[in-house]
Amino acid sequence: IMERTFSIIKPDGVKRNLIGKILSKMESADLKIVSTKMIHMSRREAEQFYSVHSARPFFGELCDYMTSGPVVVSVLEGKNAVVAYRELMGATDPAKAAKGTIRAEFGLSIGENTVHGSDSLENAAIEVAYFFSGTELVNAAK
Ligand code: CMP
Q: Which residues approach ligand 1 with their CB closer than 6 A?
């Protein structure tokens, strides 16, 4: 089934000039870039985006980090896109990520793990709608 998922290239990825390499890996994995843009999240935006983690001990650090510099948010479309992109990213901890995944190749630590991807189709829809308006989704497959 065709799905859409939501991706963030986190501040460590943008800072190290990895945007092109990461977008290229998405395209090579047959994920179509429906929309993409660079943003610098406000504190409020980060706190709301990560609100499911608000009770976790790393919540403050996570929001500090995600607002520390620009990020690239994207909408990806493809067959089973949610799972396909999670497989391409690899495990949250780069040290545990499978060889060839984005986090294995580029991730620095559990926090600075270079990319975010939606964990379910339901959250993907919420996350896409949080950062993109309908008219920004301009490269959908027909
Ligand atoms: P992400 O997929 O963006 O969603 C939540 C993030 O919390 C996760 O990636 C990690 O980068 C971040 N995080 C920071 N510290 C931890 C931790 N100790 N355990 C799990 N996730 C963490």
A: 53, 58, 62, 92, 110-111, 113, 116
Which residue's alpha carbon is at the smallest distance from atom 18 of ligand 1? 58
Q: Is 51 exposed, middle or buried (0-12, 13-18, 19+ CB in 10 A)?
A: exposed
Q: What CATH number did the domain enclosing 92 receive?
A: 3.30.70.141
Domain hosting 114: range is: 2-136
How high is the ipTM of this complex? 0.91
Query: Is 116 in the active site?
Result: yes
Distance separating alpha carbons of residues 115 and 61, to the nearest angstrom: 16
Residue 142 lies in a domain: no
Which of 116, 117, 128, 132 does the annotation list as catalytic?
A: 116
Question: Looking at residue 98, what DSSP letter applies?
Answer: P
The pLDDT tens digits along the chain (142 residues) read: 899 999 999 999 999 999 999 999 999 999 999 999 999 999 999 999 999 999 999 999 999 999 999 999 999 999 999 999 999 999 999 999 999 999 999 999 999 999 999 999 999 999 999 999 999 999 988 6
